[in-house]
């Protein structure tokens, strides 16, 4: 008969396993995890035990076949540790994955980040990235938002980008990745990208400076590649300078794009206002200049209701 102490330990191991799976999948809140772990020394010990067991599993997985012993999951987990039932995706956690560094930007914030291999990533507004660099690969997860990537050369470790819409292998070069409600837009400015999704695979490369930049799009309908319009390349360069550029877009679309950078959103109530077209270059951190341009160019009235700014056509 199992003793009460054994049952308590099994429960702690199950909880620790679930936290490990959530951390690996990028679904765990780090503050909640730390609060759970720090509330009881036994929890910290259980988590360390589970993590060590998965590290041993990963080491065995990397061993040559001739020295790799036949292992059951029970043996992998070090003498009878059981994973919590229903944890999906936890059967293949490696030591290079279970803890990830994380950086986020707030709405309207931009941030530059140097990665351990000499690569760099720039985060646009309301963006979240996680990364984990190990002995044999470099991995970065884009959870939401938009990033500009400059990837350094590494003769041993490939660079992998993971997003909710699919994953991509990237060579040394420059790339821009943006998550939209419809899927993923990946612009190849220099280098090569190979995207894998449930809908298919596709590649694009920019080898020479004179080559057209390539745009890879992942949507529910599938994957596609085409030459990136010059205006799209300019927009990438603009957001990295804290600017936003419009070239004949409908005001409805321009406001939607500008709202990415604003806590207090702009709202269009008159459909005729939304159909107007505009052009210009504005600073993402100075929406007042944009609103002033709308006043002077279109004669719009701006009604400030506290939580938003409503754009109304003048009478």
Kindly summarize this structure in a few lines.
With 315 residues, the chain is α+β, with helices and mostly antiparallel strands. It is built from eight helices and 18 strands. It has three domains: 4-92, no CATH class; 101-233, Jelly Rolls, CATH 2.60.120; 242-313, Phage tail protein beta-alpha-beta fold, CATH 3.55.50.30.
Report on the structure:
The chain has 315 residues and is of the alpha+beta class. It has 3 domains: 4-92, no CATH class; 101-233, Jelly Rolls; 242-313, Phage tail protein beta-alpha-beta fold. It has helices at 4-24, 30-38, 41-62, 73-76, 230-240, 251-258, 271-275, 287-298, and strands at residues 101-104, 111-114, 120-123, 128-133, 138-144, 146-151, 159-163, 166-170, 173-180, 183-197, 200-206, 214-219, 222-227, 243-250, 265-268, 277-283, 300-304, 308-313. Strands 1, 2, 3, 4, 5, 6, 7, 8, 9, 10, 11, 12 and 13 form a 13-stranded mixed beta sheet that branches. The protein starts with a helix and ends with a strand.
Keywords:
315 residues, alpha+beta, Jelly Rolls, Phage tail protein beta-alpha-beta fold, 3 domains, 13-stranded mixed sheet, 29% helix
Measured between the Cα atoms of the first and last residue, the distance is: 83 Å
Order of helices and strands: HHHHEEEEEEEEEEEEEHEHEHEHEE
Q: What class do helices, strands and sheet pairing give?
A: alpha+beta
Query: What proportion of the residues is helical, as a percent range?
Result: 25-40%
Please give the CATH architecture of the largest domain: Sandwich
Q: Mind describing the biggest β-sheet?
A: 13 strands, mixed
Low-confidence stretches: 67-98
Number of helices: 8
Overall structural domain count = 3
CATH class of the largest domain: Mainly Beta
Shape: globular
Count of individual beta strands: 18
Give me the Rg, rounded.
24 Å
What proportion strand? 35-45%
Mean pLDDT: 82
Per the CATH scheme, the topology name of the largest domain is Jelly Rolls
């Amino acid at each position: 008969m199992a003793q009460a102490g054994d049952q308590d330990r099994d429960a702690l191991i199950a909880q620790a396993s679930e936290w490990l799976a959530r951390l690996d999948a990028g679904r765990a809140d780090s503050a909640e995890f730390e609060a759970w772990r720090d509330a009881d020394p036994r929890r910290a010990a259980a988590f360390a035990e589970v993590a060590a067991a998965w590290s041993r599993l990963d080491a065995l997985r990397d061993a040559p076949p001739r020295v790799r012993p036949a292992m059951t999951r029970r043996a992998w987990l070090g003498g009878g540790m059981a994973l919590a039932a229903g944890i999906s995706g936890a059967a293949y956690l490696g030591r290079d994955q279970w803890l990830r560094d994380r950086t986020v930007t707030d709405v309207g914030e931009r941030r530059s980040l140097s990665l351990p291999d000499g690569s760099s990533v720039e985060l646009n507004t309301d963006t979240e990235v996680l990364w984990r660099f190990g002995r044999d690969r470099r991995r970065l997860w884009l959870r939401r938002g938009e990033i500009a990537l400059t990837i350094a050369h590494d003769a041993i470790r490939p660079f992998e980008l993971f997003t909710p819409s699919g994953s991509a292998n990237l060579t040394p070069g420059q790339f821009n990745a943006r998550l939209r409600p419809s899927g993923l837009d990946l612009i190849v400015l220099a280098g090569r990208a190979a995207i894998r999704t449930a809908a298919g695979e596709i590649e694009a490369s920019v080898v020479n400076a004179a080559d057209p930049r390539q745009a890879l799009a992942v949507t529910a309908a599938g994957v596609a590649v085409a030459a990136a319009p010059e205006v799209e390349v300019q927009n990438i360069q603009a957001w990295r300078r804290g600017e936003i550029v419009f070239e004949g877009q409908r005001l409805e679309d321009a406001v939607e794009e500008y709202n990415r950078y604003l806590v207090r959103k702009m709202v269009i109530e008159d459909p005729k206002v939304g159909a107007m077209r505009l052009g210009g270059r504005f600073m993402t951190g100075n929406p007042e200049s944009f609103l002033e341009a709308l006043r002077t160019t279109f004669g719009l009235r701006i009604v400030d209701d506290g939580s938003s700014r409503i754009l109304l056509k003048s009478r």
